[in-house]
Amino acid sequence: MRIKKRHEAPRAAVPGYPGVTKQIPLGPEDGSDEIVLRYFTVAQGEATPYHNHDFPHLVKIESGCGAAVNEAGEAMAIVGGDYVYVAPNEQHCFRNTGREPLEFICIVPMRGEAPAATDPPSGDRNP
Predict the structure, then answer these.
(1) 5: which residues sit within 8 A by CB, 6+ positions away?
(2) 23-32, 66-75, 108-117 — which is least confidently predicted?
(3) pLDDT per residue over 59-105, tens digit each?
(4) Would you say 70 and 59 are in contact if contact means Cβ atoms under 8 Å apart?
(5) Separation of alpha carbons 71 and 16, rounded Å
(6) pLDDT > 50? residue 123
(7) What is the pTM of this model?
(8) What is the DSSP letter of 113?
């Protein structure tokens, strides 16, 4: 068993997306060889990459408010305490629409944390 504090995880910028940072509080360095728990912070007016991938992920909104944007471009309101399921191959992003940082946990399979997974995809930045 491993217990950590979030502040112990290094914070890294998401390349090409100012105001978006990522931490990995639990992952391969902790002995997890199947799943990764990531923590994202999105600054006011910014958004995560609009992208898709072949695996699902589970998201828990920790604080702030924003929009989860789906493949149809529909923006659905999200606030701290909400949970979001993103299906495999579903185009999506998370946009901060509030005045405070939007913070959320994102759980993905290990292959979702490959170095290329954080590279900005081509296409719209903020749908």
Answers:
(1) none
(2) 108-117
(3) 999 999 999 999 999 999 999 999 999 999 999 999 999 999 999 99
(4) no
(5) 21
(6) no
(7) 0.88
(8) G
Distance from C-alpha of 127 to C-alpha of 111, rounded to nearest angstrom: 26
- The CATH class, in words, for 14-111 is mainly beta
Residue 30: DSSP 8-state? G
Distance of CA 120 to the CA centre of its chain: 13
Domain boundaries, the chain: 14-111
| Terminal Cα distance for the chain, rounded | 40
**Mean of all residue pLDDT scores within the chain:** 90
Per 3-state DSSP, the chain is made up of helix, strand and coil in percentages (nearest 5) of 10, 45, 45
Provide mean pLDDT across the span 20-39: 95
Q: Are 14 and 49 in contact (CB under 8 A)?
A: yes
% of the chain residues with pLDDT over 90: 86
d(CA 78, CA 121): 23
Nearest to 124 by CA among 15, 47, 54: 47
Classify residue 5 by burial, with Cβ atoms within 10 Å: 0-12, 13-18, 19+: exposed
